[in-house]
Structures are given as C-alpha cells and as structure tokens.
Design a protein that fits this description.
27 helices, binds adenosine-5'-diphosphate, Rossmann fold, 4 domains, single chain, alpha/beta, Arc Repressor Mutant, subunit A, seven-stranded parallel beta sheet, binds zinc ion
C-alpha cells in the first residue's frame, strides 16, 4: 500500500493526498464498498482513478454526462493513463475498437453511461476483469434530489453481477436522504461513508445589496478588468438579462457570450466549447450552464440575481476555483429579486419547503456575521472561526462581547427543556405574561425577565446571529424548537467568548462611492492568485493555450492554473526541478517540460 503515493506522483504529479483521499483509496483497494461525499473541487476523481491504476483489470466508471466523461478521459490520457469512454455518441466502429482494447486488457478505466451498462452487461462486461466500479454523481439515483435520472435506478444490477467487486459511489450532494438512498439503491454492502469538509476556503464570498442595473454593470466591469484574460461565469435569473448583459460587456471590449435553454443547440455548444477552451472569457448564463463541465480555472462566479436556495447558491459558486487557487464570488441581492423568488416559491407546488429555503437564503444575504460560518453551519458542519475571506470579515460591522446575551438565551432554552421556539424564548426573556407561557410554568424559570431591557426585535436579531454562529440550531421536527449546540455550551460555561454584531439599521444607506471603491479593492486582493510573477504566468498561459490548440484539448487538460502558478513560483530550470511542480507526472514532464522551462528561461533573460 506504500506504493500508492509514488503512483499519485507518477501519474498525477501530486505529492500528497487531499483530505480523505488516502483513506477512501485504501478502502477501495482493499475491496470494500465506499460512499464518498466531497464538495466540487474536493478531488473525487483521484479516489477511483488511483485504485484503478493500482488494481489489476479495468475499472468501470458510470457518469451521467458525455461531456464529463470526455473531459476525464482526455485528462487521464494526458497523464498517460489508458482510458476510454463508451457512449451512444460514438460511431459503431469506434465502439467496437474500444471493446476490443478492453478485451485485450489494455484499458485501465472505462467510462460508461448508465444506459451503456445495461447494453454491455452480458457482452463486454461479462468478458473482462472488472477491478472496481465507480458511480460518479451518485445522487442522480435519488428521487429526492434535483438531478434524478431514471437510468441510474437500474444500477443495482451491478452489485448483483459483481458481488465481490468494490463499488465506490461519489457525490457532492450531502443531504441525509440522498445518502441513504444511494447506499440502499446501489445495494452497497456495509460501506464506509466518508464526508469531506464542504468548506472551500479559496472562494471569497461577498453580497452587495440594492444595486441597480447600471451600478451592477459598473461593478462587474471593474471586477473583470482586475482579472484580465481570466474565466468567469455570471448567473442571471432571466434569459433576457443574459443576452443584454453579454451585449453590454462585449460593447466594453470583453469577450462574453450568453447561454440559456432558449438558444439554439449549436449556439449553446459553441459557447460552451469556446469557454472550455479559453476562447471566450465570460459566459452570462441561466443556471442551466456549468453542469456538464469540469473546467478547473474558473476564477470568478457572479450572481446577477439572488438564487432561490443556499444549495443552489453553493453549487453555483462551487464552479469557481476547482483547482484550489483563490477565486472570487459575488452576489447582487435586491428586494425585487426576493419578491420574484417568493412568487416562484409560492407557485411551485412545494411552497412550504421552497419558502423556507428562500428565507434562509435571505438571512444569508442580510447577515452581518461571517458568511462562510453560515454556509458551513447550514451544511451541518460546525465552524467556530470567522473565515477572513468574506465581505463581512473583510469589512466588519462593529462587534461587542455578547457572551452574556448568549448565556441568557441559552440558559432559558435549557431551563425550558429545549422545547421552545423563538417567540416563546423571547417572551420568557422579556417577561411576557401571555397565557400559554404561564400555563407551561415558564414564568417560574430563573431566566424569566432576564432580558427585559432589550426590545423584541433586537432579541430576534441576536438570536438569528446565535443560530448563524452555530450556538443554536433549529430542530424542525414538529413545531420548530431551539437546541443548544456544543459550541453554545462552551459560551454558556464561560469557556468561549461570543462576539455579536451590533445591529445595523434594517435598510442601510447605499454605500458611498468611496466605500464601494474600497470594497472593490478588497475583493480584488482576495481574488488575485498569489503569484510571484504575473507576467511569467501570463507567458506560461499563452504557451499552454498554443499547445492545447495543437493537441485539440482544453488548456486546463495540459496544466491547471495551479500548476502554472507553482511553475512561476519555483522557476524550474531543469527537468529534474520540473518534476517538483504540482501536477507534473511522468508523461507531462517529458512531453511539456522542455517547452515550459524554455519559457521560464526566457523570462529570466537566460536565452536570447
Ligand atoms: P471533484 O470531482 O471533486 O470536483 P476533481 O477530481 O475534478 O474534483 O479535482 C479538483 C482539482 O483538484 C483538480 O484540478 C485536481 O487535479 C486537483 N487535485 C485532486 N487531487 C489532488 C491532490 N492530491 N493534490 C493536489 N491537487 C489535487
Ligand atoms: Zn467570513
């Protein structure tokens, strides 16, 4: 098993595992079933690609989208791994050729669509040694999720056919229902479940409130100009906005294109292709865009409008910075967006759920506590530290030691047996004498009236903050009740201090021009990759683009942005030094090393 790390270096050019990769890979090579939950960009692919290289035979990888399969196969081939994909878009003779290679044992990873599995089950799959089975985007099997695909429901047959072969299911959707569904429907046997942190510290977070069309455009232009030649996505709710915004940006000299479900197919594929291959910088899109692409060097995602739920928001911003480099996200939020989304939610046929989700999204937008803490707590991951990379952290509202307020609230909740909701809590703190409170005997609690000096509205705000800071959580079973978390208990016991934000006016004044400027520059520093030498990176990027064009693959397949930045920092002058660069495996070393070293030498003035 010690030989796993050298394999990681040889084929992928990485020196160490990302969190959980090592653990997951060990389970799989020992023949066990695994469910892996990792955020976008967490490094799921290596979790089955490395075992596929380690184990004898061919790994079968099920993936829902042809574009995703193509991307991964190209990436593997670029690293010298024999891989192929079998799908309905290929002509018959190409498919036979791939089958032949598999039968000869030449292919280490075979990507197949779920329909393909049914078609090949008794033919090809019965006649090759299957080393492992990987089910990518495994949440597609669940009717609970948003991406349900009926073809996935038939994948249980794999475990019947290959009872002794390890199955690894992977997804970035972490909710419990989906998790249970995946395990049951794939008939995983006693699987170890790995849940990686959903934190994406490299993504900066910012929300701007109440900007009009013109102000948005000006702000967007400023961001784009601070990231020349970099890739970005702007999500709009309305199709018309994607078109008008793209036109306005083009008029300002930016290579942008619109993308939405109403455009003709050829135009949409061309736009997607141009974006993947770095021929255009920016796509203005409805949410339909981004699903099927693995592009790792998206440097910014902007929400022109507020998304309808935190899940959607997180998935969309997750398309930025998959390579781990600093990337920028920004959301514009307005009451008009909010009203429109409310109407959508009410008409959705699932209005309760959707309105709840929307109100959490709204609370995120209006928060004056660290936004990342809100997100992580929302996804059930306790986070006790401010992130330092969101607009609230960078531009903090003033804080005060609110430990006593927290202690009052938490102690009232515990004394009432954690059976009360928000309103009852505030009524206890403020010594209300309403009948229901008296009937429960809450007026006898020691904390009754302990917070009567503050108005109802202020308590409401502070308790929202306590939820957002992870001191309290809401239990939605039956009527919602408040529960004290372990982090809350630490404040209660005086072991931790709770810094609450001073309550702002409900409708804060528009930021002044000066304020906006300082916000913009804060956003810029947060999004600029820490590169030793920007012009060298630019030269390396140009070289990468020309090689990519020659080989007819997307530039990020040649090297990721992370590799280019590492190169610019290390400035390797020999092939020996070049092996140290992140993402340089044996094949890329020999194929591209000399060219990139040449560029570096040139930048140092070592060559004429
Ligand atoms: P996911 O499928 O979870 O979204 P990927 O498998 O596409 O993530 O990996 C995201 C990025 O992280 C890729 O650019 C990949 O090369 C990089 N990566 C994966 N594993 C490692 C590692 N151990 N060290 C450094 N980079 C890694
Ligand atoms: Zn923060």
């Amino acid at each position: 098993m010690q030989s796993l790390l050298p394999l990681l270096k040889q084929y992928f050019g990485f020196d160490s595992f990302r969190p959980l990769q090592g653990e997951i890979i060990r389970e799989v090579v020992e023949g066990k079933d695994v469910l892996a939950l990792m955020p976008t960009g967490g490094g799921k692919s290596v979790c089955f690609q490395l075992p596929a290289l380690y184990l004898e035979g061919t790994a079968i990888v099920v993936s829902p989208l042809i574009a995703l399969m193509k991307d991964q196969v190209e990436s593997l081939k670029a690293n010298g791994v024999p891989a192929a994909s079998l799908n309905s878009s290929l002509p018959d003779d190409e498919r036979s050729e791939i089958r032949r290679h598999c039968l000869l044992g030449h292919i280490k990873l075979l990507y197949i669509s779920p329909e393909g599995i049914q078609a090949e089950l008794n033919g090809l799959l019965a006649n090759i040694k299957v080393s492992l089975i990987a089910i990518d985007e495994a949440h597609c099997i669940s009717r609970w999720g948003h991406d349900f695909r009926p073809e996935y429901a038939q994948l249980a047959v794999l475990k019947e056919r290959f009872p002794a072969t390890p199955v690894i299911a992977l997804t970035a959707t972490a909710d419990k229902m989906t998790r249970i569904d995946v395990v049951e429907q794939l008939r995983l046997s006693n699987p170890q479940i790995f849940i990686a942190s959903f934190d994406r510290p490299n993504l900066s977070l910012a929300v701007l409130r109440g900007y009009g069309k013109k102000e948005k455009l000006a702000y967007i232009l400023k961001i784009i100009r601070s990231l020349p030649g970099q890739s970005g996505i702007i999500y709009c709710t309305k199709r018309a906005d994607t078109e008008s915004l793209a036109a306005e940006l083009r008029a300002s000299g930016i290579s942008a294109a619109p993308y939405h479900a109403g455009l003709p197919n050829p135009e949409r594929s061309r736009t997607q292709d141009d974006f993947i291959n770095d021929r255009i910088d920016l796509v203005c899109a409805t949410i339909a865009f981004g699903m099927g692409i693995d592009k790792s060097n998206v440097r910014y995602v902007i929400h022109y409008n507020m998304p309808g739920s935190i899940e959607n928001y997180y998935q969309e911003i997750g398309r930025a910075g998959r390579d781990g480099l600093p990337s920028h996200t920004l959301m514009f939020y307005s009451l008009a967006d909010l009203m429109m989304l409310k109407r959508f939610a009410e008409d959705s046929g699932q209005s309760d759920v959707n309105l709840d989700k929307l109100s959490l999204m709204q609370r995120f937008c209006e928060a004056d506590v660290c936004r990342r803490r809100i997100l992580l707590n929302y996804f059930g991951e306790a986070s006790e530290h401010d992130c330092g990379n969101c607009d609230v952290c960078l531009n903090p509202t003033s804080r005060f030691d609110g430990s006593i307020l927290v202690q009052k609230a938490l102690s009232a909740i515990l004394r009432a047996g954690e059976r009360i909701g928000l309103r009852m809590l505030i009524d206890i703190l403020r010594a209300s004498s309403r009948a229901e409170l008296i009937a429960e005997g809450y007026h006898l609690l020691k904390t009754y009236g302990a917070g009567r000096d503050l108005p109802y509205r202020s308590w409401q705000e502070y308790i929202y903050q306590m939820i957002q800071l992870g001191y309290l959580e809401i239990d939605y079973h039956g009527s919602p009740t408040l529960k004290v978390t372990p982090a809350g208990r630490r404040v209660l016991q005086g072991e931790a201090q709770a810094l609450l934000a001073v309550i702002r006016d409900p409708e804060p004044a528009r930021p002044s021009a000066k304020e906006k400027k300082s916000k913009a520059s804060a956003a810029r520093t947060a999004s600029e990759p820490a590169s030793a030498d920007a012009s060298l990176v630019e030269a390396l990027r140009t070289l990468r683009r020309s090689i990519a064009r020659e080989e007819n693959v997307p530039p990020y397949i040649i090297f990721s942005d992370a590799s280019l930045h590492d190169m610019a920092q290390r400035k390797p002058l020999s092939l020996d030094d070049f092996t140290e660069v992140r993402g340089v495996g044996a094949v890329k070393l020999h194929k591209y090393g000399a060219a990139f070293i040449g560029e570096i030498r040139k930048s140092l003035g070592l060559d004429s």
